[in-house]
Sequence to fold (322 residues):
Amino acid sequence: MKEGERKILVTGAFGQIGSELVPALQKKHGEENVVALGHNNIPSDFQGIVEKGDPRDKSAIDKIIKTHNVGTIYHLVSLLSARGEENPAFTRDVNMNGLTNILDLAVQYQARVFWPSSIAAFGPTTPRDNTPQKTILEPTTMYGVTKVSGENECRYYFIKYGLDVRSVRYPGLISWKAEPGGGTTDYAVAIFYEGLRKGEYTCFVKPDTTLPMMYMDDAIRGTLDLMDAKLDLTKRREERNWDSYNFAAISFKAEELAEELRKHIPGLKIGYSPDHRQKIADSWPKSIDDSLAREEWGWKHQFDLSAMTNTMVEHLKKKFKK
Fold:
């Protein structure tokens, strides 16, 4: 980051995405130029600028933005799908009220914003194969409802105020750094942890359940590429009525992931006991058409199922030895 440029604020800095996005931003822009906002789970060994706060507290976030001269905000705070169904009212409060505050403050301080949507924005009426960019958004979870509402709100702030707010619809994200965090796609993380620790795992979805997934390294790289892209915002305002790009990499069945993992763990025992999350999974796409992201800002994933599995096993074995 050049001298005199404004700093970057990351909310939800120690969650599933933030815990890997923050180091990537620090590496790219310098540790002194990235402000990590945490709430209750701030690691004691974190290296860098850290603030404690809640995006629902507008005055506190206002103070942080002024104190650090923030010019870009990655707003990642969100309760996920399965956990969100345990307390829908709280999920809506966290996911929506925080976003509104961030957008208001971004307009006030002329900051840029990244906000993540999700495949949860889709629903059972959405085409499930090669889901198009512009399609039916009728989710059946509160998490999904907040993602559709968030997309609409971001679009409103772009149209009314010219706010440069960018977004992708994340698929299921797989990483070795963070343990499963309550999402419907988290079976694809838990299977590695439990498989390597115990040699067995019981999936909470059916063996033929197919969902879009992405290795975290691809997700972080794609997020940074989107924020660096020179997009024609005038054309976007005049010709489009959406603001979140479809974003995809690989799709696989639960049993296909299990078979790939058995190449590394001979004798791995996998069972299937679908629970309430199966209904959520069945309402989401099997595959995503992300051709617009590939066309407009050069998105291209690097990890297929085999490469992702190899990398997950390699890193988790090292992690467990420590």
